[in-house]
TrEMBL record, chains A, B:
<dbReference type="GO" id="GO:0003842">
    <property type="term" value="F:L-glutamate gamma-semialdehyde dehydrogenase activity"/>
</dbReference>
<feature type="region of interest" description="Disordered">
    <location>
        <begin position="33"/>
        <end position="57"/>
    </location>
</feature>
<keyword id="KW-0520">NAD</keyword>
<dbReference type="InterPro" id="IPR050485">
    <property type="entry name" value="Proline_metab_enzyme"/>
</dbReference>
<dbReference type="GO" id="GO:0010133">
    <property type="term" value="P:L-proline catabolic process to L-glutamate"/>
</dbReference>
<dbReference type="GO" id="GO:0009898">
    <property type="term" value="C:cytoplasmic side of plasma membrane"/>
</dbReference>
<keyword id="KW-0560">Oxidoreductase</keyword>
<dbReference type="InterPro" id="IPR011975">
    <property type="entry name" value="PaaN_2"/>
</dbReference>
<dbReference type="InterPro" id="IPR016162">
    <property type="entry name" value="Ald_DH_N"/>
</dbReference>
<feature type="domain" description="Aldehyde dehydrogenase">
    <location>
        <begin position="99"/>
        <end position="525"/>
    </location>
</feature>
<dbReference type="InterPro" id="IPR016161">
    <property type="entry name" value="Ald_DH/histidinol_DH"/>
</dbReference>
<dbReference type="InterPro" id="IPR016163">
    <property type="entry name" value="Ald_DH_C"/>
</dbReference>
<dbReference type="InterPro" id="IPR015590">
    <property type="entry name" value="Aldehyde_DH_dom"/>
</dbReference>
<dbReference type="Pfam" id="PF00171">
    <property type="entry name" value="Aldedh"/>
</dbReference>
<protein>
    <submittedName>
        <fullName>Phenylacetic acid degradation protein paaN</fullName>
    </submittedName>
</protein>
Length: 573, 573
């Protein structure tokens, strides 16, 4: 496109969207400007916005394969890329590898004009970037699918509208935070009978410096957009370092951002890509550069801890590993509980940071609307529910997606080493992609007696994150013990989510108190179409930022407030 | 007092004050509920609020001397204290030294009820604490004077109403931040022809853990209240570890806080004192305790850096050393400039973190409304202005206060080692306190040629903080060079304040750009009754949080947003 965009046009165009987002984060009611249904895309809608149809998105993705992904960044030092889809196809896309001695200064040089543009213009440009991304949702869906291994529908929704929602949410928080201080103020202090003291004051939100986004393999856009847009909206250039196995979704994002920035009259180097050679470890190099003052990271605890310890010149926002627990005390909807849990454990083969891992079930069984159920019965009924859900290979593939990398595949294949298998994983054939690695979830039985998790001899598999389609049916001595184990697990390992099923108000209260004290997000008695592993932008917080799984939540004031500083210039009036 | 306070009463009583503060931080206009004039205190005002008069405050302070300061804290392990006033008198007050193995658990046990009270009640309790402190302003004035060495009027104003303003400002930010998310929400997501998905959500602001306040010698209340009240208002217990030479003002604060908390039905252990034996190094012990999750610190760069590197379990807010610069390019009010600078350099003997240190003056002189002035002339005129301001010992004492500690005294006495002395420091006799150590400021000439501050041979005294009444008249080759040196100094050493005098719009623009890019607060052309080293709560930011002098600003969203987290509990509706 060649249209020049003025700031005023952009602000006018996107004011309703921004206002909608601001209202939604205030009320926490349901809201989204990004349609979830695949058929909502294609053609031109009533407001004149055109988007790629399913076929156009597929074609756009196909056209990218085997090409050089041109970004016209300063300081390109060769071309890199070896993405292979979890569905078995090679993408063959080559990306520019940056010469950071050239790229970083170019990014810094772009800062003053972007700072001077102010919060409103920055927000409008960010919303325009998201709108252009939204229009290419079908293209992004394939890019996310073939890097993360998500099934197509999930890749479209989580990688498209849901990720865009999370990006917009960050823009709204960033805008609101910067607008809390006025641009100027008159200050007049009475001095009794003398003239008042008078000052004219100006306040400017200033960026911290280059913001580094270190992308992840499983949710490159969903986990990447909050940090990217929070930093950009607060005036910082963003250098995007994607996971080497999931470059394309973020490369497309960078491309759109650069296009919009240019058209709006800003330096496109405010957003740049840092692709790397295999095993280059570029994130480590970039993270300690003095120009890098903000880092957003999603990934392993080991590297997150390394960043927090070593990238001391930067503010570091991390989402690391955690162990998610579901306390199963009792239920008045046994079938609903089983169906809900079966879906949660199966979705994207359990490869979500929010997937439950440990199901804590009293050894003596639980009370349900279908009568008392023993521990063994609950476990076998859950196994049956999963079997039923995934009985048909086509349907199973649409829910499971594909295994994202060989480590996860190894883990599920070796799960029987961890204990007695209550539900074995099986291989599923994907009818469209014979090369896809697809596995159903496995459930391992475990003993939750206190000695196994508390004290000198504690050494049990379920206390560590076992990322992928492996969960543990942990037999606990009582529900109070389950709540103690829940607390212990959150404190030691962190948790992105906690679930609980109970008909007892006492147990509900104890579980809530545990989550309030240990700082974890709790879903109670989900038996319908909402799952513990799903959160909705503008309403639900993703992570708490208060336990070891993540030092930030998506999204709140703390996620944006320190990405900029306020400089005051005051003059005698 | 024995009155029981209900939350509703407190909220009603303090709603106007809180609303006033919220409005002030939004508009940044002048506002304060705390009178500055000493005569505003005493008796009972029209709203029924009684306060200590000057005489009563003096008597209350006198009565404290030579006593045990009882706080009724759990876990007292002996009594400590050896404060000696910079005015030469021994305070002789003994404080409880904590057994932290008893005190810390007691503080943690107080958290759930304080969390459950909610942001509004917490804010009201905090405002009540501030109101009680305000009523004892005259007593606090003596306590601050005889620990910091501030002159009485400054101790009363900066240690009283201005500190209370900064505390209230933090309460307002904390309240507002917690209220951005509603307590509950109904969420209903349309599902086309099917029933909508519906959830009932509850959101609770939860504390991080014990907050440690490490107080400073020079401004125990002013620098201490923001962190104390920000943490308390967001639900965290606060352990106050005062500077061993400035315990009394914070011990009084803890006493008032515990009294109000008890009367309002909360556990007084939400605020506790940690006094220590001389050279015990208790801050280091406390800072790495796992229960301590927040730290507020004002003091040396060395210990601030140690905290940031070692107290990794906590969020650390630091104000450290910096080097403050004034660029002197030109002026249309030469006398006003000289008077303003003379006052700034003299106030509290230059012992403010905001006092200018380096005055950058072009070697070729400057243009003024009184004609061209050579570098030497500017320096000698400034020296004369200081001499004039401090010519009378009584008046000088009222402005200078006393030298806070022997290190500052040594520094000013050895200033001639640093270069040619343009204004020598002299000893002033304090008529009321013969034991007071009082010194006037000294000005040392220095060469600001680039080779002395930039490059391999750079090694000049003015590039380091020289805390106390020592400033440098730095001869620079040009105003652009001055701005380069300003940038260099902020980047390397940090700065709490920057001043500039110029009649040139170009120089003004360049100086502003330097401050925006290096992130420092700028005061332009101050020639009247506002000084570069003074900031007003609710309007001015103290520090920027974006250069090495401090990682936080007083006060903004970033100062409070991460002191609590939000836990969500969602249920199927």
């Amino acid at each position: 496109m060649t249209t020049e965009l003025t700031a005023v046009q952009l602000i006018d165009k996107h004011r309703p969207t921004l206002d909608g987002a601001l209202e939604a984060i205030r009320t926490r009611a349901y809201w989204s400007p990004h349609p979830e249904h695949p058929k909502a895309y294609g053609g031109t809608d009533e407001s004149g916005r055109s988007s790629l149809s399913a076929g156009e998105g597929q074609a756009a993705f196909d056209a990218l394969r085997g090409t050089r992904f041109e970004l016209d960044q300063p300081g390109t030092d060769g071309w890199v890329g070896d993405e292979v889809s979890p569905y078995g196809i090679e993408l063959g896309v080559l990306y520019p590898r940056p010469d950071i001695e050239v790229l970083l200064p170019a990014m810094r040089a772009a800062m003053p004009a972007w700072r001077d543009a102010g919060p409103q213009t920055r927000a409008a440009v960010c919303v325009e970037i998201l709108a252009r991304i939204s229009a290419r949702t079908h293209e992004f869906a394939h890019a996310v699918m073939h890097t993360s291994g998500q099934a197509f529908m999930m890749a479209l929704q989580a990688g498209g509208p849901h990720a865009q929602d999370r990006g917009l949410e960050a823009v709204a928080y960033a805008y609101q935070e910067q607008m809390r201080t006025p641009q100027s103020a008159s200050w007049s202090k009475p001095q009794g009978k003398r003239d008042p003291l008078q000052l004219a004051k100006e306040f400017t939100a200033v960026p911290r410096g280059i913001s580094l986004l270190i992308g992840c393999n499983t949710f490159p856009t969903w986990n990447g957009y909050p940090g990217l847009f929070a930093s950009l909206a607060t005036g910082n250039p963003v250098l995007v370092k994607p996971h080497p196995r999931a470059v394309l979704p973020l490369a497309l994002t960078v491309q759109v951002a650069r296009e919009v920035l240019s058209e709006a009259g800003f330096d496109p180097n405010l957003v740049a890509l840092a692709a790397e050679r295999t095993d280059e470890g570029l994130a480590k190099t970039l993270a300690v550069r003095p120009e890098v003052r903000l880092i957003d990271y999603t990934g392993s605890t080991a590297f997150g801890d390394w960043l927090e310890a070593n990238a001391r010149q930067a503010l570091v926002f991390t989402e690391k590993a955690g162990v998610n627990t579901v306390v199963i005390d009792s239920t008045d909807n046994y079938q609903g509980m089983l169906s809900n849990l079966a879906f949660s454990l199966s979705l994207y083969s359990g490869q979500m940071c929010t997937t439950p891992q440990n199901l804590l079930i009293p050894r003596a069984g639980i009370a349900t609307d279908a009568g008392a159920k023993s521990y063994d019965q609950v476990v076998s009924d859950l196994a049956a529910a999963i079997d039923g859900l995934l009985g048909d290979d086509t349907r199973a593939s649409a829910l499971l997606g594909a295994i994202v990398n060989p480590q996860v595949k190894d883990r599920v294949e070796k799960a029987s080493d961890l204990g007695q298998v209550a539900l074995a994983s099986r291989t599923v054939a994907n009818p469209d992609f014979p090369g896809a690695t697809v596995r159903t979830p496995t459930i391992v039985k475990a003993d939750g007696a206190r000695k196994f998790w508390d004290g000198p001899d504690a050494d049990t598999a379920y206390l560590s994150e076992c990322f992928g389609p492996v969960s543990f049916a942990v037999a606990v001595d009582s529900t109070p013990d389950a709540i103690e184990l829940l607390r212990h697990t959150i404190r030691q390992q962190g948790a992105m989510t906690v679930g609980a099923y109970t008909t007892s108000t006492d147990v509900e209260r104890l579980t809530e108190e545990a989550c309030l004290e240990e700082c974890a997000q709790l879903s109670l008695n989900l038996t319908g179409g909402v799952y513990v592993n799903q959160t909705a932008a503008f309403s639900d917080f993703h992570g708490s930022g208060g336990n070891p799984a993540a030092n930030a939540a998506l999204c709140d004031g703390a996620f944006v407030a320190n990405r900029f500083r306020t400089v005051e210039v005051r003059r005698q009036a």
